[in-house]
Each structure stands twice: as structure tokens, then as C-alpha cells.
Sequence to fold (175 residues):
Amino acid sequence: MTMEINNVKIEAVKGDIANQPDIQAVVNAANAELRIGGGVAGCIHRAAGTGLESECRKYAPINPGEAVITGAHELPNDYVIHCLGPVYGVDEPSDKLLAACYKNSIKLAEEYKLESIAFPAISTGAFRFPIEPATDIALAEIKDQCQNTSHLKLIRFVLFSQKDLDIYQRKLKER
Ligand code: AR6
Fold:
């Protein structure tokens, strides 16, 4: 299931965010210190090699909702955009902070004139944001941002589980 807004294709697939070789920038569900961690951050840093952590040092710490861009090192991409999602029920307002992650990532992608970006489901793992409202927030923000894009052609959501993919597919169909 795909959706197209302002010539930007939006799709959801099941897979590993660290293995998206046809995408220019992959988004990391980072920790504030931009260090290797669990989940997405662990997969991205392990695949990128230690050069990524070294490059990240100068940008840390970041705040919830913030995004920074680095090289991709040994990942098969050009850039990594690191976002700190809100911890659900702790970093408030969680919904606005989560939307800011998507908004700031798209802005960086446009600034760098990128044609493709892949997102994981930010905050829905260790940070415990429920997947249904998190998906609504992600899709609504992406839809808004696509009104102002001029370089992006593809936005891909990469979901780890079939359950999460099913939710994304259903909500893409509803929009
Ligand atoms: N590719 C795509 N999705 C993945 C992958 C992967 N390789 N691995 C996990 N997911 P999380 P958060 C899914 O915890 O909630 C880290 O330890 C996962 O199933 O990675 O923003 C950091 O260091 C879930 O649906 O990110 C931070 O401290 C989603 O990606 C903290 O966790 C996000 O899970 C960030 O927590």
C-alpha cells in the first residue's frame, strides 16, 4: 500500500532500517547522547561502525523532538538523521514532540536536497509510545510536511514486526 502526496511516494515495508540500500538517509531512533543503544540505535550503530559514534559526539546531547544529520559511515546510505523521540508519558507534550521528530527530519532531508528517506516507528520501542497513536502522528505530520517539499520523492516507513506493518498499511489506506 502506498500513498502519494505532492509527488512524494509514501510506503510502509517490513524490514531492518539498517538495511535499506536504495535510500539516501535513514532515521535513527536515537538516545540523547547519540551513542549506540538497543533497538534501532543499536542496529544502526553496529552496521555503521564506530566512526558514527565518533562523528555524533559533537552534536550530543540532543533534546526530545530534535534531529541532527551525520554521514552514514559503513551503512549503505549517504546520511543518518538522528532523532530523539519522547519517552511516552514523561517527555510532554509527547504527541507534539513526536511530530517534531518527523518534521525536523523532513526539513533536514530537504535542506540536503535528498530524494529518499526511511523512518522507523520512533518512540514505539524502549520509549513505549503506543503504536496506533504514534502512527497517526507520524502520517499526519508527514502529510503536512509533504505540502512544502521540493526534493523528496520517496518516504519509507520500515517496521520491524508484521503487526506494526499491518497498522501502517491500514492507516495509509484510510488517509
Ligand atoms: N529496524 C526497524 N525497526 C526496528 C529495528 C530495526 N533494526 N529495531 C527495532 N525496531 P526503539 P525508541 C523497532 O526502542 O522507542 C534505544 O535503546 C522497534 O520494534 O529502537 O525511540 C535508544 O538507545 C520499535 O517499534 O526506539 C534509545 O535509548 C521501533 O523500532 C531508545 O531505545 C522503535 O524502537 C529509543 O527508544
Remarks:
- The pocket of AR6 is lined by residues 16-18, 29, 31, 37-41, 43, 85, 120-127, 158, 160, 164 (CB under 6 Å).
- The helical segments are 39-48, 50-56, 94-111, 131-145, 162-174.
